[in-house]
Design brief:
By secondary structure, the protein is mostly helical. About 75% of the residues lie in helices and about 0% in strands. The protein is built from 26 helices and no strands. The longest helix has 21 residues.
């Protein structure tokens, strides 16, 4: 039977990528070292036999008959395994949309939706300053400005800014009331097509962030992106729709990353960064956060954590110099987390102590909890779990920990308790984390909880329960886990199953990640 043409082959991109890497044989190529690192990482998601086939046949250029003979495989089994391997690589590496995604062309003209008077603009500037200083009174000020606005578009825009800001302050009711009011304004008035799509797209973006299920969030993000793209296409010279589209793409990228959809996350993030390049607001607070998140997403895909940490540190300096304190706190938590990813735990702790005084007074609730949890992780990994638990006490559930981050808190607490040898307490915390992630539908993070439960059950002398949870952790990690979750999974399997082979594999993969992190 004739071979399917490349244009009809869903795996053609993976085949071309592997062929390019084989032909380059370590030489520089257009995507830099990041893509090679992503391929090396993804190979460990394959079974050992599939990994050997790809390394020898696709990357090493050996003849299929030679590899079949060495591995004692029939030709049918060889190509069946190879196809399954390519399907896995395609899912975790190949970004179909990105191959055709070029940076947006710069606009020669950029207009604003000029409706906001001087007094209202001054009030909104004050509200943004208060928001950046961690002062929640900014919400009341924005609400007052919206009530006093006579222009319906100005009122809708202010209400949506109120909703977006309220989410940063872990306020769930205000966004619901604000988006409801905007929807009412849109139903009862007549608006230009580009303006209506801009406002509706922002409403969908807010609803995506406050939705109760991940399916609702995904649908709302898709709707928001579609509406804002249509608004940009209708009035390309308007700046506000492009700003809103960049924000929604950035939020969507973090949403997909949290669920373990790395390809979709990188695609949305790359589009957001390309769009920011066309704006005159590239160094504004939200844009800095999007650029920092993009560095983190690239590091998660390629393993190059040190380069990402350096980039985020540069963005942090700019935010600090500009006086954007909340954004600086967010970026500071990101720098700490990236150093943890790269296993530079001492560096992460140093950054924590640099950022902590600022975050204590001006950080938004989510940023403060993220910084403290990342610092706790660094202390746990350096053998100081008591200090980790002490830090976590500052942001307990019900005392400063945002609702969405409660399962994360239980995971970090479980890891510290496990290091202390308090296995029953660790089991209790990791079980709480599993229940929380299950309620969120977050299988990527459920894998971490299953892995911690397995470790506690093994230490408590319950091998059957440990194997059940370890198997679930493996299934979810292979599909949704980050490279670092995969490393922890391999290490846990080696320890619990007492397998010399798994220990060698975990050691090999750990060395690979450390090498990539320093590159």
């Amino acid at each position: 039977m004739a071979r399917t043409p490349d244009r009809d082959d869903p795996l053609a991109g993976s085949r071309r990528l592997l062929r390019t890497l084989r032909e380059r044989n370590g030489a520089p190529y257009s995507d830099g070292p990041a893509l090679a690192g992503a391929v090396e990482i993804a190979l460990y998601r394959l079974s050992p036999r599939q990994r050997e086939i790809v390394r020898r046949y696709d990357l090493g250029g050996e003849r299929a008959s030679d590899v079949q003979r060495e591995l004692a495989l029939s030709a049918r089994q060889f190509f069946r395994d190879r196809r399954r391997a390519l399907e896995c690589l395609n899912r975790h590496i190949f970004v179909g949309e990105l191959d055709s995604c070029q940076p947006a062309e710069a606009f020669t003209e950029s207009r604003s939706v000029a409706f906001c008077g001087g007094e209202a603009m001054a009030g909104r500037s004050l509200a943004r300053t208060l928001a950046q200083s961690g002062d929640a009174t900014c919400l009341g000020l924005l609400q007052q400005i919206a009530q006093e606005a006579s222009d319906p578009v100005e009122r809708a825009d202010t209400l949506l800014e109120l909703a977006e800001t309220a989410i940063d302050y872990d306020d769930e009711r205000t966004p619901l009331r604000a988006t409801s009011a905007v929807s009412c304004l849109l139903r009862n008035g007549e608006y230009a097509r580009a303006i209506a799509d801009w406002l509706l797209g922002r409403v969908a973006g807010v609803e995506a962030k406050i939705a109760k299920t991940r399916h609702e969030s995904a649908a709302q993000y898709e709707c928001a992106v579609s509406l804002l793209q249509r608004s940009v296409a209708t009035e390309p010279a308007l700046r506000e729709p492009r700003v809103a589209l960049a924000r929604v793409l950035g939020d969507s990228a973090l949403f997909e990353l949290n669920l373990g959809n790395f390809v979709a996350s990188r695609s949305a993030s790359t589009q957001a960064v390309a769009l920011i390049g066309t704006l005159d607001q590239a160094k504004r607070p939200k844009m800095l956060e999007i650029l920092g998140a993009h560095a983190m997403i690239e590091a998660t895909s390629s393993g190059r954590a040190r380069a990402a940490a350096a980039e985020a540190a540069g963005l942090l300096r700019h935010a600090s110099e500009a006086g954007w304190s909340s954004t600086a706190s967010w970026l500071g938590a990101l720098v700490v987390g990236l150093n943890c990813i790269g296993a530079d735990y001492a560096e992460a702790i140093q950054w924590y102590w640099k950022i902590a005084p600022l975050a204590a007074s001006v950080a938004r609730p989510g940023d403060s909890s993220s910084l403290l949890m990342q610092a706790a992780h660094a202390y746990t990994m350096t053998g100081r779990p008591r200090e980790a638990l002490s830090i976590l006490c500052y942001v307990k559930p019900g005392r400063g920990c945002p609702r969405e981050a409660v399962p994360d808190w239980h995971v970090f607490a479980a890891a510290a308790l496990d290091r202390l040898g308090k296995n029953r307490a660790a089991l209790r915390e990791s079980s709480e984390a599993l229940a929380g992630y299950a309620a969120q539908g977050n299988e990527r993070r459920m894998a971490d909880a299953h892995r911690l439960i397995a470790a506690s059950q093994a230490k408590l002398g319950h091998p059957r329960d440990a194997h059940v949870h370890l198997s679930e952790a493996r299934r979810m990690t292979e599909r949704y886990g980050s490279p670092y979750a995969l490393m922890r999974q391999l290490a846990s399997e080696a320890l619990i199953l007492k397998s010399p082979y798994l220990k060698r594999e975990a050691t090999e993969f750990t060395h690979l990640l450390k090498s990539l992190a320093q590159s």
